[in-house]
Write a structure and sequence with these properties.
By secondary structure, the protein is of the alpha/beta class. The protein has 6 helices and 4 strands. A 4-stranded mixed sheet has the order 1-3-2-4, covered by helices on one side. β2 and β3 form a beta hairpin. α4 packs across α5. The radius of gyration is 15 Å and the shape is globular.
Length: about 200
């Protein structure tokens, strides 16, 4: 993982806690959003081990997002939280159920379908970042490769959560679409945005 040398380009503005800005934006936009638990480390929570993302994870069994206390110091903190909330929006609004049914019925296409799920998650993340009033950002400023390829969401135990890798350029493209502020645009392939649009509170 790397950060840019200049925080003035493609970066969120300085904030006391940009992660909290995203939390508040998510709760204002959608019902049923998970609570955030600040922890010293992700491992040991909801069946997570060292293979789970080191800074953030969404436990669907408890509807909780685990966030390390030191994450605020990371320039990508708001994105990490927004990505987790993207999964939560899918779960709470029925998109994840639809996706799972498709995956079970079409096992040979599982990798492609999970890739579509992740694209929509990153689009929702961009939408929440925009709703939080944070400036546009590019994932390629912070990462050299996909940082969400390993387990980072799912039921207890998190260590066996879904795994799929999406190339960084594709993730960044969908994150940018979401930052445009239109949740209806978060419709990759056969996963429509209808449930997202219907669930949006304001």
């Amino acid at each position: 993982m790397r950060t840019t040398l200049c925080a003035c380009i493609f970066a969120f503005p300085l904030s006391a806690d940009p992660a909290t800005d995203v939390v508040n934006a998510a709760r204002m936009a959608f019902d049923g959003m998970p609570v955030v638990r600040r922890v010293d480390e992700i491992a040991g929570n909801c069946g997570a081990d060292e293979t789970v993302h080191p800074h953030v994870a969404y436990c669907t069994s408890r509807n909780q997002i685990f966030l390390t206390r030191d994450v605020t110091a990371l320039p990508e903190a708001a994105y990490l939280v927004a990505h987790s909330y993207g999964h939560a929006v899918q779960v709470r609004q029925g998109v994840a159920d639809f996706a799972l049914a498709q995956i079970r019925a079409r096992r040979p296409e599982e990798e492609m379908l999970r890739g579509l799920v992740e694209r929509q998650v990153d689009c929702i993340a961009g939408f929440l970042v925009a709703r939080a009033g944070l400036s546009p950002a590019s994932l390629t400023d912070w990462f050299l490769e996909d940082r969400f390829a390993g387990p980072h969401w799912g039921r207890d135990p998190l260590r066996i959560g879904p795994e799929v890798s999406v190339d960084l350029v594709t993730r960044d493209a969908w994150f940018a679409i979401g930052q445009g502020g239109d949740i209806a645009a978060c419709a990759p392939g056969e996963f429509s945005s209808d449930l997202l649009v219907a669930a949006l509170k304001n």
